[in-house]
């Protein structure tokens, strides 16, 4: 049999994004949105059927986020959103985007990164007022929709341990039997409903099992499922894990009455060792995740078949289900749209649809006697032998000759910060933004015309400089202290740099969902990295010439470029990170030479690839932080280095982040409870900090009073002399009529605190 964990839901041309945004902008009727999405789901089912997928998932579709879907399913949503009096769909979008009218002003629920991916999930809050109950029919409807076109799917739901551990908890003990038994009642109702409508397989996702589990986590998991599995009836329950190995619970996991267990053999290579050591039940299916769901390079059939052959010594072949390592949500839709790619590169790649073909071919080979003589197998081996020759070598010489001195900035932070205060003479609580300003329709249109050679570079350059002039003037009018140039020349904070660095492949339609309707187009690192020419200097230098206030040079850091790209699996990621750092160091030093005194090197994805097991943390962080330090170790003391991080849990590694030795660090914080600030105060971090005071992913216009309250909380926790005031993240995805009044209110709130709340008016 063949299975996949999940399929991309945005459509081959980002149709879902356009429909949802059309609905939110009141340009598309609700009935049209629902009708269109149903056709899209049917299309995805038919594609999987065409490639022979036996266990086709349903309920992996979502208008915004599947974690939020699950919160809605079990009624784990705050009462204030229910009180809006909206229908199910509009309540759902209020939770995701926030809601504001004459009567209500509700923030969107927080977002966090989904494990070590660039996908962001919505974080529900579970309180002592949460009343679990079955509240929607979405998973049942989607099964019935597929059945109506003759396809019996495998519904997918999020498991209870993953849901509870990744949700925010307030005033509840999730390990208390009286608490979790209420949730158990809902899960029993869910699986009994599935059985009543004819479902055969149900997939319950528990990726939390690949993290470090404590004794009470394991006890909760075992107690919950022992009770739940008593009610499965004729259903076959698939316990699906991904993103790592299940070493903390494997022996107990295989003893439970699951009909199948899904294991990741790509990120969870240790899983094979667990099976060799402890065996596997003969009567259970094993869902073998051998096709990488998080990368776009072809599957190495030799390696995958070796894993499958090993499994067949423990499990009958008929009980081995060949699968993806995780959902295909994290890769683009299909290579068939990449008509501009050179065949010499394209032939090494596999997007979601091509991975379906790989599963089919692996299944054929696995059941074929002497598959090593099959032309598919032989051709695949040839691909990987040929790929190993596609490298440069001269840049590696530079990397190998780096010394410890290349990674250290001098003088010390304490000495630098004194110099910088004299140079910049900024007021208490300096205000700034993170970098990008709204990418309005005209910006996207002109960039498209330039790429399609409909206008000249001179015309494009004139347009961009006019935009920069406007945004500099706007920021001066608003009263910001440190300005940015708006990033109008950039399509994306990673793809833009990929386009301007040697060693990258840029796709035409390689879109991947990042959150909600936001999609990114990750570049592909195919060979060694070099900077072709200065990338950002001209436009940032131009922006600085228009104002006496400092303009930040904004760059994306080497680890974020690495982590938000698809990287060849046969190349050392540590080596790639250092190559990227050397390229970005050239850019940093050129900005400094051009008179840019503040340079922000963004690393929102610094810990995105942090291994999920703590025992591997130090190995990753040691080279990741050194790569960042390499980019800015040679700047002058008076050049102020900023960085930005967002949507991850930083509390546990702040002492490691302190080793980055930056002067200012800005964090996403507006939707949190500021516990991060308490952690910062206790940590070794010396840098000045800018916790965000408003959420850039919500269309809400945030009031001066709300931000003033947040600033006062931050002063209490951090102190005045160390604090910057800024949004959570870049403003690219918002509209100007949302952003400008909120920025005005942010500055007014800061002035209010400076003038009325701070008794002294001492410069920083």
**Unreliable runs, pLDDT <50, ≥5 residues?**
none
Give the C-alpha Rg: 26 Å
Count the E strands. 23
**Number of helices, counting only DSSP H or I runs of 4 residues or more:** 28
Mean pLDDT: 93
Percentage of residues in strands:
5-15%
Task: Please give the CATH class of one domain.
Answer: Alpha Beta
The name CATH uses for the topology of one domain is TIM Barrel
What would you say the CATH architecture of one domain is?
Alpha-Beta Barrel
Distance N to C terminus: 66 Å
How would the global form be characterised?
globular
Oligomer: single chain
Assign the structural class, choosing from mainly alpha, mainly beta, alpha/beta, alpha+beta, or little secondary structure: alpha/beta
Largest sheet: 7 strands, parallel
- The helix fraction, in percent, is 40-55%
Sheet with the most strands: spatial strand order: 1-7-9-10-11-12-13
Protein architecture, described:
The strands form 7 sheets. The protein has a 7-stranded parallel β-sheet with strand order 1-7-9-10-11-12-13. It has 764 residues and is an alpha/beta fold. Helix 1 runs antiparallel to helix 2 and helix 23 (573-593) packs parallel to helix 24 (617-632). The chain has a domain at 409-757: TIM Barrel (Alpha-Beta Barrel). The protein contains 28 helices and 23 strands.
How are the elements arranged and paired?
Blueprint: H1 15-24, H2 30-50, E1 57-58, H3 66-73, H4 79-82, H5 88-97, E2 99-100, E3 105-106, E4 111-113, E5 120-122, E6 125-127, H6 138-147, E7 154-158, H7 160-166, E8 168-170, H8 177-196, E9 201-205, H9 215-228, E10 236-240, H10 250-253, E11 260-264, H11 270-278, E12 285-291, H12 301-311, E13 320-324, H13 343-346, H14 352-366, H15 375-387, H16 394-400, H17 413-424, H18 441-451, H19 457-478, H20 495-499, E14 501-505, E15 512-515, E16 518-520, E17 524-531, H21 537-545, E18 552-556, H22 558-563, E19 566-567, H23 573-593, E20 598-602, H24 617-632, E21 640-645, H25 654-658, E22 664-667, H26 675-682, E23 688-691, H27 704-718, H28 736-757
Parallel strand pairs: 1-7, 6-8, 7-9, 9-10, 10-11, 11-12, 12-13, 17-19, 18-20, 20-21, 21-22, 22-23
Antiparallel strand pairs: 2-3, 4-5, 14-17, 15-16
Helix pairs in contact: 1-2, 8-9, 18-19, 23-24, 27-28
